[in-house]
């Protein structure tokens, strides 16, 4: 197998760290590895496969000879550097929201629309984490019974806001337990023993960016402009792995047995649905796993052809780094 | 105003403690106070309005001369003692699920169906906490635009499972932060930095008791057997105050301005809906408050006449003790 020259852009972040860990776990064929970050981190060392790598400052000329750029350094950085990546002939798989809705950029979940990978012009976008965790378990149902409407309420971990946000949850929790006032740096409101509406900008219609991403990206990934979706995105005091309560309306009657059957056979999901033990998807069990956990399957008595479910998925893995690396494996025909 | 002889059944629990605190805050007219609990707690002392009261063991003959029993000692205790309360001529306002669906027992939220109070035969049931927190803000909308369907995902605090459950969250959180294995006593799964499907029994259709309560109680309180509801109930690592993501479908088009207007004028709710500051209902702000906080108002683009909202309410106060005491105030014509 051809070995690739790989650059990781934003290697010091929570997703950057997962890129390294997943590349190692999956024995990704790497010839040369370039670790890029902001000037602040340049000169620090990171270990990967028994070798120490110095972090370099990401610059327009960082991509000469590079085949693959895995990027997760913020939308502004992606927008600034993408033209240079493309000019250098590399493929950028971008985990930010910079290009997701660009009609020239494929937006891909390998279990759903792998064929879109080969339509790229140098950049492939990785969907929003909540979108991925929602759609991987919904697609097998969509494929057999077409979903017309999705209602989703999210239970999102602090990891989605980065490593500092995870630290803030731990620090604030310690402070609250000790009777002190929690220190707020990353989030606008206390996260310890609290929840709040997702900390992304609210648009004119009252939806926040996170919710709008879920609506728009679903249409693009499913190639279905008719699918209707409403989301409420909530941040809760959990470290990593997002959960979502999903209520779907299918275009035909689908039995729970059939739902179970398609979910058991579907790639990327694991059915966790033991009613007797009240054992269903939980974020601590989704953490570190490749699959999205799906369960709490119920026929929704309040609407025709409705199904209710609950899912948990590792926001940093399948919701970010793993999905990007799976795209890279398909793009470069690498067997994981 | 006539002063009442009041007994509190289950005074050592989380709701029992709130009964005392709210009776004191609202200057409830009490002639004699009787504190009842299981034999385990008998003989302990509790302070109320500058006086120490000894806890007595709750027995069939505990209710002689009592006017009002506020009970929250579990369904089995309520079922066992209710006939004795009624025989003694007292009114029992019961916070357990024992009698909620009994056709002879009114199920009351004072802001919604106060007229049902006067149909009692000795027992009035206090609805489930998640039901109360959902319906107080929905009723003003229901009244003007009739709601045909409710989709709800809950974010429930540990307080709903009692005082020991709140302690378990704190203890487990300390253990996790110290790198130790969390000790499980009350909940079947780790609650610290985790969530799980509500820990009530799962029925044949896959819904848990908590979800079924929300469906059935809504129909009874609204006197509307046609209203359709689907719920997913989730326990999250929060101490008290439940939150809920609500998606409603009205029978006519209602603008957000009209929704805001009816919510501003409605009793028992407080509109918290500042899009610019991304400031919406949060459990830490609902804690200790009488009102249910409601916000995140949006027109739901995925369905006709749909509105999405988010609510937080103190599970121990309006979700339990306060609602029961408000019922008592109406039943005995007491001005709060």
Provide the descriptors you would attach to this structure in a database record.
2 domains; alpha/beta; 336 residues; six-stranded mixed beta sheet; Rossmann fold; homodimer; six-stranded parallel beta sheet; Dihydrodipicolinate Reductase, domain 2; globular
Describe this structure in words.
Two copies of one chain form a homodimer. Chain A folds into two domains: 4-127 and 320-331, NAD(P)-binding Rossmann-like Domain (Rossmann fold, 3-Layer(aba) Sandwich); 131-315, Dihydrodipicolinate Reductase, domain 2. Helix content of chain A is 30%, strand content 24%. The first copy, chain A, is built from eight helices and 16 strands. A six-stranded parallel β-sheet of chain A has the order 5-2-1-6-7-8, with helices on both faces. In chain A, helix 1 crosses helix 8 (317-331), helix 3 (129-145) runs parallel beside helix 5 (209-222) and helix 3 packs across helix 8. The N and C termini of chain A lie close together (11 Å). The mean pLDDT of chain A is 97. Chains A and B meet through strand 9, helix 4, strand 10, strand 11 and strand 13 of A and strand 8, helix 4, strand 9, strand 10 and strand 12 of B.
Short description:
The structure is a homodimer of 336-residue chains. Chain A is of the alpha/beta class and 336 residues long.
